[in-house]
Structure formats: structure tokens, C-alpha cells
Write a sequence for this structure.
């Protein structure tokens, strides 16, 4: 399990990395490397040039500005877990990060890499959808904002152009009337999700003012369970409504069968994760 | 492919190596510097027997390029003991019978060392989660948990 | 040990010995905790090259051509070898342990995915990895046989063209080109007659999936041929180095005296490292051809895909009983999927290993076992994964079928076992399939576990949960193993009887070096063998060095697997020590000027009976052995023993498991696992407990998640640790252990094997618990692995996941 040969460049800045992306055909960014390097070892991927973006200061850090949290794309999972800002203002990210891979991998794996890589099994994409995150993407012509909703186009396919870099993720701090839930079913530590679901819900009195339900690994990319959301929006959520929503989730899923389970199992597990996440979100929003 | 000249601290001592970009840190440590306590088990970052400490964090050295360690601080099992003797985690693994074939042990120790730095007084549940990136086929983990608990006590008393 | 005479200071002296019964800390640990273990991949020799394999992407295909040119043109590549290159040396095929042959490198055809097609030898593993990509192989795909049940269909593709028409197999007549053997034990007619007339019969089909031992260290070797001295040294991940030496000598023609096999530290074996693999053979050939050391180390995918798998048994268990649940007969049928070559690691006489221990802990009057082995397009193997030759399968089939019988009769599964146990007074007990169980006390073990776990309370709780629609299962297994192969009259490998050996030398100053024919892979031999010698010779175990694994120095032995080290190697150690003590007694008599009969042994010395103060310690005797000995006695104090055990040992246990199953996800939580083991005399309780923890965890892995599945094209699925289930700290339950002690009557110190019992015993316990959660709904059996997906499917079939 040895990769093909490649050239290596440690980028000093985002501009430096973008320049290399522009100049060198098929160059790839090396973030945490825990998805890319195994693929390269299997020679499923043979990029001729790797641009290491691990040591670029502007890609690091978690900041709170008003009600917006800016997370550098190269923030590691363990940095997310350890962040007081996130624990206080967006604990959904903390809960999701805790269930990514294992402790060592979480020291290398980054939120940006997880979002940009494009594997439907990655956990942050669905979280981004549920949080309605803004993705800050930089290219030769500067920065642009890209809503997470609409960013994921398919497996290993998203709105980042070949000469662009995801530099930061912006999410809104959760408000008092908001609650979140995160449930992920996996076979064991280190595995991808059989199915996972982050849910963010806003209450207006007893009624559900807004809800976003993300789904992990039950489609070619992270998706939202929009129809299920519509069932719940504007309603007082009760068991019967949750069941209706769960039924919608089952039909929204298009998972690929593998050793984790067949389509039926994965779709139902997605629904089950949604049920549990909604319950948690409701409870948190009420408190 | 042009080779890269890298230097880093390994167990407190400066080392240098000339490496291809694709060379994995675990191979540099094992083959180039010939410290063979760090092992290779799965090469896909699942088993954790290649775990080393890089800049104060546990990492899997089979999924890191040696060039990425350039300028860094690396700790392997060979660096755990000091002039005063074995580290408390090493002692505890012997006392609690936390190892059998020994293949996962160096990485398990390096991970336990770092875990206890980060969480000096862990519960059993926290040990299970904190050590979950290291597989063992022999022990059923139970005595490793005891060893980590015992080391935690010793380190707190020290 | 019977040292407890009236000696005043005996207990203290005994403590200092750290002998049998002491939880002595391990001697091995010092090197492992400091990164100073010496595993095969740690070995580096001057000029050493690295070998890597070109492997088949297809499960069944004809090789039309192999073009090595591009690979050979890559700088740093020294050789590319194919079957055609090995042919002149007659090394393109090799014999297997099961009497078959196996292609070292694919000869005209590939028979399973990832089969070795060519080997590349290069300066290092990086260049080798590049070079294997450059070897161009042209294949013509052939129809693939994956389903063992279709192997003997008329229109099944014929796999082994080398065997076409050869209907005399190694073990029996073959009835189909894909048939390997038929093997039977017991009395078929008598068994069938009982079934015809029985009040009650049950029958259960079960599939024991193909799994893999997958130790954390993969297989590998470093072969070094010294052309000047024509001497071959091979460092190898082998559980049986002496047998490997014999095989290597036979294959290569190099005299056995010029072959040195060294098993250095081994990073876990669990049966996987018993056989001889193509990688070893080609490394040796490459070293001979190139005249430099050659290393080969497989990666995890190669390991899971090609080196020996375990199990893959399609079994049917049937019991005939009376209406009270007393067993009248047992019938077991097996279809065994051996893959493309029969490389099953069993004693030569037993193509299905010791499967005929499948009568278990029960007094079964008559029984019949029928096993058919077939070829399929899968990797060869059939090793004993942490068990003694198919004992896991045997225990699984009887324990599962017992549960089915209990369920049919509405008798509690503890009660039905109690009714059928071989009683303590029946030992030694001759089973219907021909084994003599040496000792046991099954009722005591069962009662102890039921009480410790409040079995009745658990059943009440289960009833309450069932009423609430919750799924709780209680698993119970009362197993008996057969370990310690074995008597040479029963057991040989390639004609070499399965004895084992120990050679003990007492130095003049009274310290000891001892060497055995076994090889530790984590079991702690360096610690426990010393404890046996310490108790036998009265020399502190800390002054006893144990060495194994180097065929140049250790006496010939058959190695470590099938829990045979303590029953056979441990017995050899005790007997060799007793030979030394007998000589020491003569020397002591000489020194004390009394007759031997006037002496009595007391912990670490001989004393003159009834004369206080008249005594010689073992240390004094050792010195005298080199200086002052009786007339005519040869100097020195050492002994060798090659021990041929009179019987196997039969450890047993009672295991209880409680599970809660989430009916909405299928996820199982193991709430409790209680394991009571009886391995006879306990040499080192700390190590025993550690072995049991590990075995339970491997049992948990097998029962709950491990499998090597294949698609219809013979592609192996799940051959990385992403998919292949090795539980982490998080998934692993907490283990509770307990014991009783029923010594083996024939073993010199009464010890039985233990390390595999927890694996063998726990697997059916998990299944028993899982099935028990559904048994009130009519479920009698569920095949492993009991992962969430499969359980949810069952829950769905039973319509249990509906929310009201």
C-alpha cells in the first residue's frame, strides 16, 4: 500500500496554494490526508502534485463575530471538540465531530477537508446543511460566499472549482429558541455512518417555526429531507407528525447498498436517526 | 522525484532524513532512523499500531507523510522512559497485564501517555473513547483500561 | 502442587519461587513496553531486498500472458518471477498440510481473487510497489464458483484442472471434480435407527461464516541464503517453526541441518500463522536465486484476502431425544468450503479436524458425523482461529442444537443441559464418536454461573421486558473443548507426530535455561514455563530463562496452536524437570551420604527424612552436579523430554451472556458476559485471565461482526479494517471471569489448555443470547454475524419495529 510518486509543496498562504492549483494540472490539496492518502495508497487516486495546506495560518481558528461563527477550513475535529465558542454557540458541531473516526484521526482530519472531499459518508456536509452554513471559497479572483445548501452536487462533486479552496465555514450561533439533535449509527469506531442525521429546529411558542434535517450517507451526497421538514414546519410537533416525517425520510433516501446494509435498512436507519435527532432538538429548544 | 531534506526532533534528539515526498512517516522512523517500536498494522489508519506523538498530539504515522513532520517534535515509544526509569504508563501495563503479543503495545502506550496528559483523571468510559483509535487483538482491552487507570493514579500522585 | 508438607519455611520459600499458581508478572513485557520487541518486519539485513506480489483481480481466470519487461526496466527492480520461473525448480506448486497441493504462483490459471501471480523483488517496498503495477497480465475470465452448495452440481465449473480424473483424494474417494473428501465418524446406521424411532427430533441448519484470525501483525518473512555455506536462514511469522524447517528442507532439497527457521516475536497468530504461504516460498527462492536476503511482508488487504481464513462450515445439527429432553442420538452434517486448494491446517488423519468432539458435554449414546469438503473460487485455508482444529464449529453445532431442542420441548436451556451432562462420576468418559474425555465437573460449573448471575432473576426480568415489547436475550453455553494435540497415534502433521519438547539445563550456579518446541505469540510462555520449572526444581522462576522459536537451538516441536503449549509443551517441561530432579536426588543422596529413599523433596531442597538440618538445596546440588557427583554419573544437570501425550485435555466452561437489542436499529448491547472456565491446574491466574479476556473479545468479534463475504464474481468484500470487524475499546463489553479447578488426570501437573476456550465458548453464547431475545416469537436460530443490519432484518420480518 504505497502511493504513486508525486511532488510535494507546502503552501505558505492561500494565494500560494491557489497559484499552484492554477499552474499545475491535477494538483490536489492535502488537508488532513486521512481520506486522500488511503485512496492514493490503493492507487485509486494518483495526483502528480500535492499542495499541503496544513500550515496556513489564515485557514485556522474559530472566531465569534456578533452571531456569526467563523471556522477556518483547516480546523481539526479535535479543535472543534475543544472549542468553547462552539460548545457554547453551536454544540451540534461538537457533537458531530466527536463521532468522526477516532481520536488520532480527529487530530488530523479537518472540517474543510471533510466538507470538500465529497464522500457521502463524511459527516460535516449534512451538518452544514442543517446549520444552513455559508462556505467561504477563495479562488484566483478572490473570495466568494457559497451557501452549503446547493453546494453538494454528487459523490466527489461540489461547487468548488479546480482552482479554488474552501477557506472558512460560517455558521450562525444557535438562538435560545433553537435546538439541535445529532444521531449517527455506525458499525464501530472508525467507520462511516450507516446513516446519520443532524437536525436544527426553531420553536415559535409550541410550534416549529423552522427545521432543517440533514442526512448523511444515504444518497450520493449529503442531502436535506425537505419534504419531511415541510411536514413539521409551522406545526406543533408530536409523535404522529414525527412518524409522518420519518416516512418521508425513508422515501427521500437513495443509499448505495454495501456491507453496512441494503437500501431498505439504510433508509430506515436514516429515518430512525431523524426521529431521535428531532426529539433531542425539540427538547433542547424547549429548554 | 526530487527528494526532500527534512529534520525533526525525535524523542528529543534532532534527526535528519532525505525522503521522497510519498514516504510515510512510519517508514522514515522504522526504516530510515531504525526505531522499530512503532509498527504497521493496517496502513489505512484504522488499527493505530503506528501511533506516534507529533507536536503534542497523537497521530497515525501511516497516514502522514514524512515531509509533514519536518520541523516537528515526534515522540515514539522509545522516548517514553527517562533517565529516572520507565514512564508510569509503561510500569502500569506490566503491573496490570495490559499486553500480550506486544505488537499494539508501543502505540497503545504512546496514546495512553498523551491521553493522560489531556485528561489526567479519566473515567472508564472516557478511557474507552480516548483509546478507541488503537486496536488490540489479544487483551480484550480490559487490562489496558486498568493499566491506564492505574497510571493515571500514579501520575496524579507524582 | 503438593508441596504443602509440614515444612516450617516452605510457604515462604515457595512464594520466592514464583511457581505454579502465582500471578507472576510477565518476563516478556520489558522489551515490548520499550519498543524493543523483534518482529519480522523489524529485521533488517545488509543488502536486503523487498518482495511484493502481483495478484489476480479475478477469482477464476486463465492466464494468457505475463509481460515482465516494463517492471524489469524500472530501476531498482532485481527480479520478476512467475510460475514458469519456479517450474524448473519444481517449486511452482507446494504440498499443503491437508494432503493437497497449492500453487505457489498461479500456474496457467488463477483460482481466487488476489491469488499470487508473480513476485517482484526490488531495492525497497516503494520500488516494489511501483513495479507490480508494471507487470502486465492478460486474463481470460472463467465461470466462478462461489456457493459451496453448488460445487458438486453437474454443471459446476471445474476448478482444479490438475486433479481432473484423480478420484482418489488424500482422505477419501472423490465423487466430483470439485469434491475434496467425505469423512465420517460414528455409527450411521445405529444413529439413523434411533432417529426413526425417537419421540422427539430437532434439526437446525446453520452457517458458520468464513472469518479470518487477522492478528495485528500480518504475515511476513526474511529469507537469507548464504551461498558460500549453503545455509538458509528464514525469519518468519510462524506458529510452527520446526515444521516449517522440515517443509522447507523437503521443498528446497537443502539438508534440514542447513536450514534455520526463526520465529522471532510474533504479533499475534490465532491460527493464521500455522501454514506455509506462497510469500514465504518465493522469498526463499528469490534469496537463493539472487544470493541476498529478501523480505516479504503482506499488507492488511493481502492478509485478509489470501492468508488462511477460518470456518466456512455449512452445518446441520440434529438431535433425537425423549419427551423429557434426554438425548438419544446426535447427527451432524457438514458441507465444508475449503476454497481453491485444501490447505486446511488439521492433523493428517482428520480432514475435518476434531469436529467429532461435537457430542459436547453431554452423555450422547450414539452419534454420526458426516463431512464433505469442496473446492470453491476462494482463498485456501481452514485454520483453527483461536481454537483447536474445528472445535469452535463442533461446539457451535451442539450448543445451538441443544437450544433448539430445549425450545421445542419448552424446557429451560439450563435444565436441558443439566439433564444431559456427563456426570462427574462418569469420567474418564468415552464419547460416541471415539474420544475419551479426561475429566470434568459440569454440574458444579453450571450451578455456580446460574447463581452468580441470578439466572432466575434474569428470566423474570426478561418476561417483564417481553410484555413491554422489549428485546432481551439470555445466552447460555456449557462447552467442552478438546485441546492439546495430541497423542501421536491420533495426530501428525505431514507424518510428524504431534509431540512436543523441552530441554532444560541447570547451570552450576543453579540458574536455568530451557528451550521448548513451542513458540509464544503473546501467551506468555517465557513466564509460565519458568513457573512450571520453578515448582518442579525449586529454582526461582526469575532465574530461569526460556527460549523458543529458533530451530538451531530449540528441540523439535510442533509449535503453538490449538491450545497445545500447556498440555503438550508444558507437560514436556514438567517431565524434563522431573528427570533433572531425579538426578538431583541421586546427587543429594551422595552428598548427604544416605540412600535416595531416605530423602524427601521440600520446595527447593532434598531433606533427610526425620533428621532436621540434613538437607541440600537445589543450588548446592547444581554445583555438585558439575563437581562432586556419585561414582559413574555423568557430569551436568540437564534433561530433554519429548512428550507424547496419552490423551488430549478437555477444558470446559459455562458462559452466560445477557443482551438488549434495540428493535429500531438492530443494535445489540451486551449487558453482561460471565465466563467460568475450568482448565484444570492454573499455572498463572493473571495470564489465564488475560487470555480469557482476549478470547472472549475475539469471540465477540466473530459472533457480532466478522465475515469475509464474496459477491457472485468471487470478489472478496470487506478486506480492510474499515469493514472487517475488530472491536475497539468502545464496542467491547466488560468481561466477568470465574473458574473451577478440575485437574487433568493424565497431565503431569494437571493442566489443560485455556486460551482458546473463551473464543470457542463465547461464540455460541452470543448466538444463544441473540436468538433467545426472539425465541418467544418462534425464532430457533439466526446465523452470524449478528450485526445490527442482520438483526434489524429479522426484527422487520417479525414486524417488531412498528411504533403504535
Amino acid at each position: 500500500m504505497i502511493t504513486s510518486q508525486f511532488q510535494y509543496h507546502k503552501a505558505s498562504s492561500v494565494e500560494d496554494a491557489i497559484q499552484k492549483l492554477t499552474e499545475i494540472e491535477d494538483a490536489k490539496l492535502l488537508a488532513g490526508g486521512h481520506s486522500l492518502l488511503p485512496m492514493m495508497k490503493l492507487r485509486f487516486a494518483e495526483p502528480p502534485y500535492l499542495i499541503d495546506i496544513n500550515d496556513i495560518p489564515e485557514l485556522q481558528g474559530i472566531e465569534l463575530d456578533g452571531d456569526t461563527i467563523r471556522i477556518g477550513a483547516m480546523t481539526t475535529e479535535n479543535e472543534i471538540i475543544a472549542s468553547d465558542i462552539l460548545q457554547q454557540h453551536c454544540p451540534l458541531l461538537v457533537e458531530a465531530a466527536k463521532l468522526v473516526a477516532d481520536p488520532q484521526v480527529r487530530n488530523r482530519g479537518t472540517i474543510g477537508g471533510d466538507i470538500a472531499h465529497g464522500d457521502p459518508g463524511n459527516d460535516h456536509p449534512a451538518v452544514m446543511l442543517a446549520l444552513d452554513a455559508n462556505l467561504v471559497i477563495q479562488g484566483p479572483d478572490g473570495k466568494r460566499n457559497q451557501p452549503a445548501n446547493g453546494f453538494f452536487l454528487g459523490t466527489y462533486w461540489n461547487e468548488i472549482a479546480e482552482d479554488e479552496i474552501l477557506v472558512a465555514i460560517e455558521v450562525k450561533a444557535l438562538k435560545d429558541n433553537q435546538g439541535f439533535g445529532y444521531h449517527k449509527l455506525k458499525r464501530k469506531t472508525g467507520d462511516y455512518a450507516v446513516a446519520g442525521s443532524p437536525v436544527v429546529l426553531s420553536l415559535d411558542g409550541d410550534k416549529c417555526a423552522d427545521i432543517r434535517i440533514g442526512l448523511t450517507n444515504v444518497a450520493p451526497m449529503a442531502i436535506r429531507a425537505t419534504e419531511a421538514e415541510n411536514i413539521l414546519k409551522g406545526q406543533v410537533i408530536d409523535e404522529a407528525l414525527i412518524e409522518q416525517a420519518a416516512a418521508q425520510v425513508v422515501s427521500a433516501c437513495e443509499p448505495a447498498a454495501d456491507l453496512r446494509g441494503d437500501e431498505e435498512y439504510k433508509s430506515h436507519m436514516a429515518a430512525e436517526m431523524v426521529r431521535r435527532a428531532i426529539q433531542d432538538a425539540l427538547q433542547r429548544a424547549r429548554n | 522525484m526530487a527528494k526532500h531534506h527534512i529534520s525533526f526532533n525525535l524523542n528529543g534528539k534532532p534527526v535528519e532524513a532525505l525522503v521522497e515526498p510519498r514516504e510515510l512517516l512510519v517508514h522514515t522512523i522504522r526504516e530510515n532512523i531504525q526505531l522499530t517500536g512503532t509498527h504497521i498494522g493496517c496502513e489505512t489508519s484504522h488499527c493505530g499500531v503506528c501511533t506516534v506523538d507529533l507536536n503534542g498530539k497523537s497521530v497515525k504515522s501511516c497516514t502522514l507523510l514524512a515531509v509533514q513532520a519536518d520541523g516537528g517534535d515526534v515522540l515514539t515509544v522509545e522516548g517514553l522512559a527517562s533517565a529516572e526509569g520507565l514512564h508510569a504508563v509503561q510500569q502500569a501495563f506490566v503491573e496490570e497485564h495490559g499486553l500480550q503479543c506486544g505488537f499494539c503495545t508501543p502505540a497503545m502506550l504512546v496514546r495512553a501517555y498523551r491521553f493522560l496528559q489531556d485528561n489526567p483523571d479519566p473515567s472508564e468510559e472516557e478511557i474507552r473513547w480516548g483509546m478507541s483509535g488503537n486496536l488490540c487483538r489479544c487483551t480484550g482491552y480490559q487490562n489496558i483500561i486498568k493499566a491506564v487507570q492505574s497510571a493515571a493514579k500514579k501520575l496524579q500522585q507524582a | 502442587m503438593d508441596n504443602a508438607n509440614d515444612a516450617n519455611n516452605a510457604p515462604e520459600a515457595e512464594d520466592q519461587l514464583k511457581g505454579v499458581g502465582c500471578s507472576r508478572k510477565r518476563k516478556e513485557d520489558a522489551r515490548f513496553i520499550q519498543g524493543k520487541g523483534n518482529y519480522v518486519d523489524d529485521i533488517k539485513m545488509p543488502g536486503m531486498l523487498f518482495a511484493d506480489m502481483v495478484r489476480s483481480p479475478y477469482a477464476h481466470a486463465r492466464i494468457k500472458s505475463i509481460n515482465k519487461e516494463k517492471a524489469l526496466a524500472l530501476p531498482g527492480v532485481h527480479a520478476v518471477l512467475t510460475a514458469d520461473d519456479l517450474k524448473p525448480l519444481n517449486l511452482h506448486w507446494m504440498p499443503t498440510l491437508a494432503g493437497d497441493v497449492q500453487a505457489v504462483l498461479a500456474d496457467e490459471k488463477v483460482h481466487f481473487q488476489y491469488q499470487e501471480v508473480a513476485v517482484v523483488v526490488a531495492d525497497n517496498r516503494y520500488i516494489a510497489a511501483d513495479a507490480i503495477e508494471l507487470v502486465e497480465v492478460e486474463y481470460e475470465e472463467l465461470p466462478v464458483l462461489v456457493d459451496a452448495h453448488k460445487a458438486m452440481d453437474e454443471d459446476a465449473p471445474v476448478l482444479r484442472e490438475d486433479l481432473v480424473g484423480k478420484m482418489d483424494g488424500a482422505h477419501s474417494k472423490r465423487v466430483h471434480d470439485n469434491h475434496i473428501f467425505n469423512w465420517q465418524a460414528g455409527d450411521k446406521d445405529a444413529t439413523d435407527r434411533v432417529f426413526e424411532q425417537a419421540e422427539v427430533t430437532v434439526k437446525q441448519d446453520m452457517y458458520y461464516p468464513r472469518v479470518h484470525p487477522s492478528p495485528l501483525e500480518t504475515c511476513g518473512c526474511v529469507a537469507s541464503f548464504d551461498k558460500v555455506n549453503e545455509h538458509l536462514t528464514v525469519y518468519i511469522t510462524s506458529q510452527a517453526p520446526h515444521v516449517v524447517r522440515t517443509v522447507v528442507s523437503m521443498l528446497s532439497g537443502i539438508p534440514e541441518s542447513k536450514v534455520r527457521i526463526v520465529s522471532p516475536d510474533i504479533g499475534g497468530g490465532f491460527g493464521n500463522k500455522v501454514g506455509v504461504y506462497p510469500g514465504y516460498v518465493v522469498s526463499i527462492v528469490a534469496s537463493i536465486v539472487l544470493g541476498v536476503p529478501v523480505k516479504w511482508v503482506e499488507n492488511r488487504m493481502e492478509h485478509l484476502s489470501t492468508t488462511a481464513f477460518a470456518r466456512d462450515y455449512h452445518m446441520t445439527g440434529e438431535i433425537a431425544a425423549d419427551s423429557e429432553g434426554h438425548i438419544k442420538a446426535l447427527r451432524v452434517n457438514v458441507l465444508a468450503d475449503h476454497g481453491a486448494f485444501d490447505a486446511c491446517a488439521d492433523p493428517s488423519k482428520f480432514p475435518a479436524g476434531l469436529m467429532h468432539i461435537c457430542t459436547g458435554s453431554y452423555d450422547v449414546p450414539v452419534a454420526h458425523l458426516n463431512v464433505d469438503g469442496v473446492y470453491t473460487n476462494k482463498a485456501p485455508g481452514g485454520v483453527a482461529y483461536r481454537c483447536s482444529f474445528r472445535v469452535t464449529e463442533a461446539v457451535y453445532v451442539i450448543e445451538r442444537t441443544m437450544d433448539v431442542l430445549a425450545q421445542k420441548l419448552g424446557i429451560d436451556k439450563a435444565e436441558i443441559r443439566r439433564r444431559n451432562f456427563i456426570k462427574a462420576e462418569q469420567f474418564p468418559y468415552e464419547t460416541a464418536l471415539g474420544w475419551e474425555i479426561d475429566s470434568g465437573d459440569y454440574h458444579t460449573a453450571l450451578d455456580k454461573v446460574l447463581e452468580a448471575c441470578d439466572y432466575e432473576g434474569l428470566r423474570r426480568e426478561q418476561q417483564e421486558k417481553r410484555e413491554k415489547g422489549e428485546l432481551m436475550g439470555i445466552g447460555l453455553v456449557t462447552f467442552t473443548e478438546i485441546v492439546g494435540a495430541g497423542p501421536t497415534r491420533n495426530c501428525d502433521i505431514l507424518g510428524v507426530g504431534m509431540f512436543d519438547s523441552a530441554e532444560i539445563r541447570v547451570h552450576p550456579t543453579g540458574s536455568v535455561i530451557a528451550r521448548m518446541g513451542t513458540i509464544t505469540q503473546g501467551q506468555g510462555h517465557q513466564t509460565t514455563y519458568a513457573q512450571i520449572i520453578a515448582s518442579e526444581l525449586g529454582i526461582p522462576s526469575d532465574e530461569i530463562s526460556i527460549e523458543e522459536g529458533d530451530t538451531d537451538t530449540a528441540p523439535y516441536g510442533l509449535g503453538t496452536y490449538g491450545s497445545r503449549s500447556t498440555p503438550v509443551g508444558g507437560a514436556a517441561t514438567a517431565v524434563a524437570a522431573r528427570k533433572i530432579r531425579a538426578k538431583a536426588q541421586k546427587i543429594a543422596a551422595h552428598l548427604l551420604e544416605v540412600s535416595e529413599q531416605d530423602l524427601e523433596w521440600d520446595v527447593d531442597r532434598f531433606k533427610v527424612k526425620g533428621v532436621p538440618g540434613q538437607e541440600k538445596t537445589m543450588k548446592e546440588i547444581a554445583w555438585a552436579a558439575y563437581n562432586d557427583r556419585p561414582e559413574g554419573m555423568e557430569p551436568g544437570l540437564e534433561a530433554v523430554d519429548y512428550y507424547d501425550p496419552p490423551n488430549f485435555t478437555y477444558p470446559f466452561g459455562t458462559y452466560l451472556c445477557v443482551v438488549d437489542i434495540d428493535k429500531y436499529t438492530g443494535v445489540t448491547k451486551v449487558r453482561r458476559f460471565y465466563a467460568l472456565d475450568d482448565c484444570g491446574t492454573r499455572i498463572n491466574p493473571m495470564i489465564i485471565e488475560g487470555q480469557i479476556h482476549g478470547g472472549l473479545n475475539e469471540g465477540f468479534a466473530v459472533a457480532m461482526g466478522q465475515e469475509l463475504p464474496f459477491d457472485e464474481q468471487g470478489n472478496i468484500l470487506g478486506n480492510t479494517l474499515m469493514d472487517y470487524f475488530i472491536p475497539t475499546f468502545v464496542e467491547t463489553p466488560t468481561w466477568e471471569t470465574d473458574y473451577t479447578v478440575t485437574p487433568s488426570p493424565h497431565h503431569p501437573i494437571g493442566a489443560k489448555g485455556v486460551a482458546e476456550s473463551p473464543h470457542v465458548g463465547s461464540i455460541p453464547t452470543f448466538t444463544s443470547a441473540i436468538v433467545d431475545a426472539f425465541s418467544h416469537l418462534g425464532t430457533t436460530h439466526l446465523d452470524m454475524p449478528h450485526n445490527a443490519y442482520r438483526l434489524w432484518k429479522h426484527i422487520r420480518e417479525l414486524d417488531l419495529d412498528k411504533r403504535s
